[in-house]
Request: fold
Amino acid sequence: MAATFAAQLERLKEQGLYRQLRLVEESTPGRVTVDGREALLLCSNNYLGLAEHPALKRAAQKGVERWGSSSGASRLVSGTMALHRYLEERIALFKGSEAALLFNSGYAANTGIISSLTGRGDLIFSDRLNHASIVDGALLSRATLIRYPHNDPTALRRELERHPTKGVRLIVTDGVFSMDGDLATLRELVALKKEFGALLMVDDAHGAGVLGETGRGSAELLDVLGEIDIQMGTLGKGFGSFGAYAATSGEICDWLINTARSFIFSTSLPPAVLAASLAAFDIVDSPEGADLRRRLADNTHYFRDSLQDAGFDTLGSESQIVPIFVGEAEQTMTFSRLLLEQGIFVQGIRPPTVPSGTCRLRATLMATHNREDLEEAVATIIRVAATFPEVKKHV
Ligand SMILES: *Cc1c(COP(=O)(O)O)cnc(C)c1O
Reply:
């Protein structure tokens, strides 16, 4: 007989894997009140601080006043508004793609896109550290899922050679890996997808708006813009809004409209969100956006270099996501709790989000952090780690 949920929850607690929601109030740029205490926010994906930007707030208000609070239906029913079109045109222009299609979230985009492009008999080659929504999309598709070792193009090549097919071959990767902060080897993946006639999909949830000279994301940084068949991106992180998209060919957009179930069977994004996203593109594409990206990069370098100098293992981070390796789940969560008591809000990351034994704190930097706050955070992390013997310094 299956154990009761209560008993299973007890087991999670024993293993240090129990998850609880924390109430966050009074968010100001870079700081929050969490469970009643004020802390430096080091775990938000609002990297550029756009979620608090007056232009996004104003745009959302105007969106509601002009268009109402809901789209009222799925896009295919009666829910396509001019704002959906404007935003898709803007995304396609930004990404340099023929077309773009909105989804209600990154999770809905990945499950929808992957299960629409592949089916029984097709092959999906997925980096082992890809986001859970990519794995779920692959499971929904009923295609064969082949997970290759993290950022290992040689191993991917072997898998491609080992699995010939007349069906679709889809190579899919995070652009920036969400729990490690390192970048995909996109140039090598582009070469492989050409050689093997595969489709290449990049999930740039953490790169879009943030990385590259003009914020086009990891593909711009690695100089492969225009070489990726499906650029998936999200609007709830660097863009400070909500939703996601596929920037791709007109043909694939048309196919997605016809077959992506998370697109077809779900009420579309509401006007306030669409208007805020449009305002975010204006900022990302402006000198102000360039300045925010520079500040974010400066903060990232300061924070990561300081932790590395102090002997922490930041797991190959190359972006504003800076993990601090701990190891076991319980130690990681205790470390996180002690930091919160000292006014630093940084989440511990455990299985199933990361492989067991690789638990870590995952710190994320923001353009709106100021240097004094970060100096204090680094000092606090070093101090707490020192008084907490289980936290091993790795390097
Ligand atoms: C956050 C994230 C998603 C999901 O996006 P949401 O808009 O939050 O649903 C997908 N992929 C990656 C890599 C992510 O980090």
Summary: Residues 105-107, 110, 131, 133, 174, 178, 203, 205-206, 234, 236, 244 surround pyridoxal-5'-phosphate (CB under 6 Å). The chain has a mean pLDDT of 95. The first strand starts at residue 24 and ends at 28. The chain has two domains: 18-47+287-392, 55-284.
